[in-house]
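BUG: 3D viewer hangs when loading the predicted structure for this chain

Environment: internal workstation, default settings.
Expected: structure renders.
Actual: progress bar stalls at 90%.

Input used:
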Amino acid sequence: MTNTTHSKNGKMVVCLNVKDLKASNEFYKKLGFAQIGGNIKKEWSIMNDGENELHLFQGHVSSNTLNFRGGDVFAIAASLKTQGLKMTSDAKKESDGSDGAWINDPDDNTIYFNTAPGERRFNT
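Structure tokens produced before the viewer hung:
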């Protein structure tokens, strides 16, 4: 068991930057995923296979991203900074009203902490 000093990160969702949303939707349906949300006309889709959630974005994210949803974004960012990590974008209230913060791992993978107003919290 890992001893961690920061808030729980929240629920992890993999966000993929796709070239063709319709083709990607069809591919993931063949892997057992169903579309449970999103807006194809606005080029994003939420897929779920009963256990795993996958977000597909055409033109909305610049790279594949691990998105942690429902955590206390400000507490997580503060904890990471006290551990000597540099945030790509510090915790802030975003234009859509959600709390968001960005960091990159040592391999430059993007990690996004985000919690929308009214979203289920996973750290309580």
